[in-house]
Amino acid sequence: MSGSSKPIVLLAPMAGITDLPFRRVVRSFGDFMVFSEMVASQAVVRAVRRTGKIMEADDDQHTSIQLVGADPQIMAQATELVCGLGAKHIDINFGCPVKKVIKTDAGSAIMRDEKRAAEIIDAVVKAASVPVSVKMRLGWDEEHMNAKAIAMIAEDLGVAMVTVHGRTRNQMFSGKANWKAVAEVKDAVKIPVIVNGDIVDAETAKRALEESGADGVMIGRGALGSPWILRDIQSAIPTQNAPQLRVKTARTHIDYMFEFYEPSTSIKLSRRIMMYYIKGMQNAGQYRQMATLLKSRDQIDELLELLTLHIS
Ligand SMILES: Cc1cc2nc3c(=O)[nH]c(=O)nc-3n(C[C@H](O)[C@H](O)[C@H](O)COP(=O)(O)O)c2cc1C
Predict the structure, then answer these.
(1) CATH number, domain 8-235
(2) Rounded-to-integer distance, Cα 214 and Cα 128, Å
């Protein structure tokens, strides 16, 4: 880590994962800024019911609401609405690589059109009553690595922070994140730059920070089933007794889900959530099948009991 100061550690936005229960679990390990999954700006403007649930946050959650969209006016309207609902921070998605989003010229597709990127950023910053950040990739492909140009535009227009996932759009999730390439962005702007991609523990965080010179790290997949890694990274001290903590955290996560969703939704989501926690345990193959078959809260509790026995 650079000097003795602690690095900024953030939880990445992940569709279908970074809901209020998971953000709450992550924040039980420290005062981390967390991100909602991306919310389509058109859906916010049309008041689609599901978006409310995605954006819901505890007052103290320090949640950034991530908006995705291609139309500057709609992005601005969505920003106003989200700020009106009490958002503390807005993030603009310039990184999503999936076809469904690219087809609408949103997400990482915007990186191909710097003028459009500037219009969206300008509209959102002007409409927002809270700080705005931008999350992007290195560029569309290896021939078009323009994260630096977009970061400079963002800084000029009043953006407070940029996050760069060290892959191009065409890489999707393949290969390795290129942390060194993020250094070019860091050198070009004064606002905080966050490096993202393949950071899973204190060691990878240290390397990513050294290679990029970034001010902080954003953790996505590494936090699944091991949400305490954000604390490990910030303190540079590995968590002791991880198996016990794993089962305890799984139980807490399940409790938060049942508080937040209808029982049927909670049970459905629990199948996937339990898999993440089980995956990190030794010799837990036998429990995976059970997780996929969960049909009631009682069965979830039974599985948690079995996992407790497994580790004791
Ligand atoms: C299941 C999943 C959903 C994601 N959803 C979003 C999203 O809604 N918005 C976004 O900006 N990035 C999204 N991402 C990308 C992550 O925020 C992050 O940039 C990427 O996973 C690389 O970081 P990691 O290696 O730490 O996971 C998603 C990634 C995954 C695996």
Answers:
(1) 3.20.20.70
(2) 26
